[in-house]
Structures are given as C-alpha cells and as structure tokens.
Design goal:
Layout lengths: L2 E8 L7 E7 L6 E10 L2 H7 L9 E2 L3 E9 L11 E4 L9 H4 L17 E2 L6 E2 L9 E5 L3 E3 L8 H5 L4 H12 L7 E5 L3 H13 L3 E6 L2 H9 L4 E4 L5 H8 L5 E6 L4 H10 E9 L13 H7 L2 E4 L7 H13 L11 E3 L4 H9 L6 E4 L4
Parallel strand pairs: 4-8, 11-12, 11-14, 12-13, 14-15, 15-16, 17-18
Antiparallel strand pairs: 1-2, 1-4, 2-7, 3-5, 3-9, 3-18, 5-6, 6-10
Length: 366
C-alpha cells in the first residue's frame, strides 16, 4: 500500500528546500521502491530549486544516492528486495538509435518511474533527475537501480556519490577524455566534479595532472587526490603555466569543470596540438562562446562534451566500487560532512561558499 514518508520539497522558484510528508505509491510494472540510505547534496539540486532546469514545481530534490530495494513491481528481474543499489539517471532503453549503435551511454530515451509521488494533498511531484532521493523512500524505474556489492553502512555515503558528481568527473577523464597511460591532464575547476576528474586521471595512468582553481582549499584537495601540480589562476595565467609544465606544448587532455566561456577558452588554448578538450561543467544557458575558427581548424584534436561522464551505470558503478574496495579510489575523501534531511537548505549554502566537496544526507533506513 502507499507509504507516507518525509522528503525535501521545493514548492516554487527560489523557495526554500523544506521537509514535508509525501506519498510514495506501490511500484507498478518495471518500478521499484527503495529505502534511501544516503544522498549527496549536488549543485544540480540547487539548479532545480532556482528554476534553472525547468519550472515543473513542486520538485522533490535529491538524486545522488545509495539505497536498499524495498519493494519490486511486476517484471523486475535484475534487482531483488534487500539488494543494495546506487541510483542512476541513465536507465537505458536498449531500443533507441544510440542503443542500437552500441552507444548506450548516449541513450535518447532513458526511463523514469511512470507513476508520480505526491504531496499529502495529492499534488504531483517532479523528482529531480527522475529520482527524488532526499526522501526516506522513493519510487524509481527498475533500470535506475544499479546493484553493487554491499560495502557496509560506513561506506554508503562515499559510493552513493557515484550516482552523479563523482561519476561525472571520473567519466570525463576516463570515458570522454580517454586519458591514456603516460599522458598529461589539466583540470580547470576543482570542486566536486573537477576533483573527481583528477581522481579519474590518476586511475587512467596520467603521469602529469595539473589542477587549476582560484581557491587554495580546492587546490589542496586536488593535490591530495593525486594532482602533481597546482595553479592558482587568480595569480597566474593558467594557459602559460600549463604549457610550461608540459614542455611548452600543452596538456594532452584539458577538462573544463567550470563551464564558463573564459574557462573553456583557457582549456582550448592550454591543450597540445591534436589534444582533447572535455567540457563537463554545466554552462549557464545565456553564455556564448567565441573562438577564431582558424584556431579550431589549425589546432586539430577534438572538442567534447561529457554528459554524466558518458557512463554506463551497469558497467561503471561496479567497476569503481571495486577500485574503492581495493584502495585505488578514495571516495571517502569526497564526503566532507554528513547531515540530515532537515539540513539540506543549509548544506546548499555551505556548498555555495566552497567549504565542501560534498555534504551527504544520511537517513535511518539500514
């Protein structure tokens, strides 16, 4: 039967994120109800709050989560009650033209639950990225659940971050940028996604990893995650500094984890001839980019955008959890503080001040 649970809802543009009671229906065919264990506080949730990714208020926030399967609907076979899962927002369809080409990471018809969760008065909620995990329970499409080995409750907060930001950064390096052993990588912007890109470059075998930011705290975190060099771009021209560190040529791969025209131009000119630029920072829709077309032609290489780190959750989540368990990927380093559902609005403010890589909401279900 439907269940009433506590969840974080924002009712209108720029309204505060507040805890309210919501109704979670029984799962229908192909749907799953999960008990949420942890959920990271991601910038994307604040974009929903500000109305920057739509106006389908009220929104049920949260999407970067570890959960345990509670109830499964008809036809669900790949997860069972009791399984620990990471929630994802790329439940591939297997039928669209991208999937048929073997490029499911670009699936054009990803699935969400068909039913809607509601407020207690019956008002339908729009779950952030089709997930809505700032909640004690949430309803998702079965394909949004990626089963993982149970790493223990002390690690749930860390592995749940693979559901969005950490996967976006690691995937920008490994999947989109295709960083190879022995290459050089520069990462512009070392918040949560940029720091994860540094970690991804380490996993891929890069030998020189240059972290660029204006915040000394973020630069130090990047160094702890494996950056070989750091550049304070408020005091130094990052393009010249990256070239100097790479023999005058520029980096093989430059990842823009900020998403502004000025940082993209830095990335474009800080790469080696025939190098790769990866844009993973989400741009403001109003921003425009100007580059001399002759430079685009003459420098060769590739300019790529990375959406969710071009990941396949069924492939990448278990692999990265394995790296974590074996000590090759320090996901714990991304968990700066642990908070409750009642602290989400305050966590947004802490995030905006640059004080954390991730605040993580922990819930009571175990």
């Amino acid at each position: 039967m439907p269940q009433t649970v506590r969840a974080v809802v924002v009712r209108s543009k720029d309204a505060p994120a507040e805890v309210e009671e919501i109704i979670v229906p029984d799962p229908g065919p192909g749907e799953v109800v999960v008990d949420v264990l942890t959920c990271g506080v991601c910038q994307t949730d604040q974009h929903f709050q500000k109305g920057e990714v739509g106006d389908d208020f009220p929104y049920l926030l949260g999407h970067e989560a570890t959960a345990r399967v509670s109830v499964v609907g008809d036809g669900v076979t790949h997860v069972d009650v009791g399984d620990k899962v990471i929630l994802n927002w790329r439940a591939v369809c297997g039928e669209c033209r991208a999937c048929r080409k073997g490029q499911a990471q670009y699936c054009f018809d990803t699935a969400n639950a068909r039913q809607r969760m509601t407020l207690t008065d019956g008002t339908e909620l729009e779950p952030a990225l089709g997930i809505g995990a700032f909640a004690e329970k949430t309803l998702v499409a079965a394909g949004q659940c990626t089963r993982i080995d149970d790493v223990g409750p002390e690690s749930d907060a860390a592995v749940g971050l693979l559901g969005c930001g950490v996967m976006a950064g690691i995937g920008a390096a490994i999947n989109t940028g295709e960083v190879r052993r022995g290459e050089s990588v520069a990462v512009i912007g070392c918040g949560g996604v940029g720091a994860a890109a540094v970690a991804g470059a380490v996993l891929a075998g890069a030998v020189r990893i240059v972290a660029v930011d204006i915040d000394p705290r973020k630069l130090e975190r990047a160094r702890e995650l494996g950056a070989t060099d750091i550049i304070d771009s408020s005091a130094t021209d990052p393009v010249e500094a990256i070239r100097e560190l790479t023999g005058g040529f520029g980096a093989d791969v430059v990842i823009d984890a900020v998403g502004r025209p000025e940082t993209y131009r830095q990335a474009f000119y800080a790469r080696d001839l025939a190098g790769r630029v990866v844009l993973v920072g989400v741009p403001d829709p109003s921003h425009m980019l100007e580059l001399p077309l002759i430079d685009v032609f003459g420098r060769g290489g590739s300019l790529k955008s990375s959406w969710y780190g071009d990941c396949l959750p069924s492939r990448d989540f278990p692999m990265l959890v394995s790296h974590y368990r074996q000590g090759r990927l320090d996901l714990d380093a991304f968990v700066t503080e642990r908070v409750t559902l009642d602290d989400v609005q305050q966590a947004f403010e802490t995030m905006n001040r640059g004080e954390v890589l991730r605040s993580v909401v922990e819930l009571d279900a175990r």
